[in-house]
Amino acid sequence: SETVSAVETSNIAGDANCDGDLSMADAVIIMQSIANPAKYGIEGTNENHITEQGKQNADIAGDNDGITNADALAIQKKLLKLD
Description:
It is a single chain. By secondary structure, this protein is mainly α. The protein contains five helices and no strands. Helix 2 (24-35) runs antiparallel to helix 5. The radius of gyration is 12 Å and the shape is globular. The relative contact order is 0.20.
């Protein structure tokens, strides 16, 4: 469907789950992918694992250093308007 293709190509800064919206769920998937890569990493077994596009979107803190907890924190700060 059109909605799915738009979501799959989401390149919103911080949109780690590629749903087209910046939310707390993005911070959560980043932390899950770091803590449990077998389940939530790129090749994760969970149906909601992070994707390559999600990793690109999520890397908003640091100098293109990959996704880290700093990215999850940056998303939370942005959502709370603390940045």
